[in-house]
Amino acid sequence: MIVVDNIVKQFGGFRAVDGASMEIAKGSITGLIGPNGAGKTTLFNVVAGVLKPTSGRVTMDGEDITGLPPHTLFHKGLLRTFQIAHEFQTMTCRENLMMVPGAQSGETLWNTWFGRRRIADEERALKAKADEVLEFLTIEHLADHKAGQVSGGQKKLLELGRTMMVDAKIVFLDEVGAGVNRTLLNTIADAIQRLNTERGYTFVVIEHDMDFIGRLCDPVICMAEGKVLAEGTLAEIKANDHVIEAYLGTGLKNKEAVGA
């Protein structure tokens, strides 16, 4: 579905992503792991159009999407969330969801004068859709709460809910578990799994919680120093000497020392 081909992203003399290549299969939940500074979020930003690559190519279903802006990719069904939730704090959780779909009739001055019935019909449909999403995520009790006043984990659920308000094909989740308690993290994992199996969503997940990755993700891709280091099941990744070396500074060096 997504093919990342030899992507380089350079900031001055520093290569945050250094020739990374990978394929994301349709219908998969792919985990992207690696030590801090590995280039994971920068790669996300390149694929999602937040940053333009220095070189390389990204395709989606065979179409070259390299460097397309986020709003264009949004309409193609490619969405991403951020490590820090970006909610409209003074709006309710329901209103945050209702804001997502584009080209709403109420956005034009003409319709506010002459299309009030159409606007009202759309708002009723959006409200019903938002309430369905909140129920799916088991946070329907927060519908009328201000989004800025709910917990960090509930904000992450709300971000996931935004992807459900449009026809998302692939969703990039950046550290969805950061700062989230275990109970809510399990709720988030359940929602991702259901969206994958019941609605056909494809996910790519950056996460440091290996239990979370192990529960959801196959395959798992490990990055280090801007490059793709290894790919496989989580068990294979954990047993990979190059991965151990990247995380702990041990593994290959110790094995070579023992051999010597």
TrEMBL record:
<dbReference type="Pfam" id="PF00005">
    <property type="entry name" value="ABC_tran"/>
</dbReference>
<dbReference type="InterPro" id="IPR032823">
    <property type="entry name" value="BCA_ABC_TP_C"/>
</dbReference>
<dbReference type="InterPro" id="IPR027417">
    <property type="entry name" value="P-loop_NTPase"/>
</dbReference>
<keyword id="KW-0067">ATP-binding</keyword>
<dbReference type="GO" id="GO:0016887">
    <property type="term" value="F:ATP hydrolysis activity"/>
</dbReference>
<dbReference type="InterPro" id="IPR003593">
    <property type="entry name" value="AAA+_ATPase"/>
</dbReference>
<dbReference type="InterPro" id="IPR017871">
    <property type="entry name" value="ABC_transporter-like_CS"/>
</dbReference>
<feature type="domain" description="ABC transporter">
    <location>
        <begin position="2"/>
        <end position="250"/>
    </location>
</feature>
<protein>
    <submittedName>
        <fullName>Branched-chain amino acid ABC transporter ATPase</fullName>
    </submittedName>
</protein>
<dbReference type="GO" id="GO:0005886">
    <property type="term" value="C:plasma membrane"/>
</dbReference>
<dbReference type="Pfam" id="PF12399">
    <property type="entry name" value="BCA_ABC_TP_C"/>
</dbReference>
<dbReference type="InterPro" id="IPR051120">
    <property type="entry name" value="ABC_AA/LPS_Transport"/>
</dbReference>
<dbReference type="GO" id="GO:0005524">
    <property type="term" value="F:ATP binding"/>
</dbReference>
<keyword id="KW-0813">Transport</keyword>
<dbReference type="InterPro" id="IPR003439">
    <property type="entry name" value="ABC_transporter-like_ATP-bd"/>
</dbReference>
<keyword id="KW-0547">Nucleotide-binding</keyword>
